[in-house]
Amino acid sequence: MSKPRLEIRNVSRQFDVSMAADNVSLSLQSGQVTCLLGPSGCGKSTTLRIVAGVERQDSGEIYVDGGLVCDGTRSLPPEDRNIGMMFQDFALFPHLSVLENVAFGLSGAKSARKIRAQEMLGRVDLAGYSAKMPHELSGGEQQRVALARAVAPRPKIMLLDEPFSGLDDRLRDGVRDETLRVLREDGAAVLMVTHDPSEAMKMADEIALMRGGQIVQKGAPYTIYNSPTDRDAAAFFSDINVMTCKVKSSLAQTPFGKFFAPGHPDGTILDIVIRPQHIRIDFDRAGQGPTPSDAMGQAASANVHRARFLGQNSLVDFKLRDGPFLTASIPSVFLPKAGTPFWLLAPRKHCYVFPRLA
Ligand code: ADP
Ligand code: MG
Predict the structure, then answer these.
(1) Ligand positioned closest to the Cα atom of 215
(2) Which of 195, 245, 317, 336 has CB atoms 3.0–4.6 Å from 305's, for a disulfide?
(3) How far apart are CA 19 and CA 5, in angstroms?
(4) Would the CB of 48 count as within 6 Å of ligand 1?
(5) What number does the ligand 1 atom closest to the CA of 161 have?
(6) Which domain holds residue 63?
(7) How many domains does the chain have?
(8) Is residue 1 situated within a structural domain?
């Protein structure tokens, strides 16, 4: 495989006593979109700022196309890194026209810069806006000008730090799709920061989930959603149900029958996690009572405790027999009454088994 466009190798940065970035390693190919995803304060922006060269690392290295850009002592200045940036608080120059804003970072003859800037405006569907001033544009249009300006110098790498969070919901999807299209056409490696899992899943080829300065899991959206590395990683993407149980002879007894728990010694407390959207109602068994085979089966009998209609889906809280409450997300054509009995299924492939952390 070719050298990665961007390689972050073992980068750490400490502020006071806390590690903002803790041994972060990440590798991006050109044309690839990677999202740093995690809660506020987990070190996403610090990592991005180190790549940009506006923050220094204590240790570790950054490489672009295999060439060293910075380590703990030497550092290429930001303007020599061929890296484009878009941040939430992007600012257009208020006294320059739209065209002048886009041409600003370009080098070369004035006429060539103008042609390139005009071409970029066309690509973000603002061809007719070149003579306008920034204050005459809507928030979404300003964002597209900022995108055109960032992409105009053909950066090898684009860094985006929550660039869409200032836009209202109605605009965000459109601007996001547009940005992604332009960046993919250009083939830049894109490193994007967001705290919003749905945004990360929409945008990213690869997601790097961060917590406390560390990358705790890396993978394609499908993998990271369906094979979370621990309970917190599961909970970051959706609400979760947790069934707690104790291991006995490599088995854990739950309301959904026994789970195999190989490698966990007797007495280990397990959290068995299932997302509300993965719980199924077993309509084949509707009206049937419990049978002896359920001990190793996947079904559990439950009664509706409360059901809420949310439009796309309904959220139904179930009380399991002798057991905990579980919430299921089911198609909203269905809104059962409180007290109605059902059999529920917890498909094994959607049940994640984690030892309880101390
Ligand atoms: P995120 O972008 O994920 O919200 P940041 O990278 O901005 O997180 O911050 C990570 C941690 O480092 C936070 O605890 C933050 O308070 C701290 N931090 C960031 N920048 C500085 C700084 N310049 N000085 C001191 N602490 C900082
Ligand atoms: Mg941040």
Answers:
(1) 1
(2) 317
(3) 26
(4) no
(5) 2
(6) 6-234
(7) 2
(8) no
> Does ligand 1 come within 6 angstroms of the Cβ of 165?
no
Q: List the one residue out of 216, 183, 174 whose CA is nearest residue 5.
A: 183
Among 180, 201, 234, the domain boundary falls at 234
Contact 243, 320 (CB under 8 A): no
Query: Is residue 213 in some structural domain?
Result: yes
CB of 46 closer than 6 angstroms to any ligand 1 atom? yes
Closest ligand to residue 46's CA? 1
Is this prediction's pTM over 0.70?
yes
97, two tokens: 């026209």
pLDDT tens digits for range 177-220: 888 888 888 889 999 999 999 999 999 999 999 999 999 999 99
* 33-37 vs 206-211, strand pairing mode: parallel
Closest CA relative to residue 252, chosen from 239, 271, 235, 275: 271
Q: Identify any residues that bridge with 191 across adjacent strands, giving them in sequence order.
A: 34, 159
| b/e sequence 301-320, b meaning 16+ C-beta within 10 Å | bbebeebeeeeebbbbbbbb
Same domain, 45 and 193: yes
pLDDT at 295: 45
The reply to whether ligand 1 has any atom less than 6 angstroms from the CB of 39 is no
101: left (phi over 0), alpha (psi -120 to 50) or beta: alpha
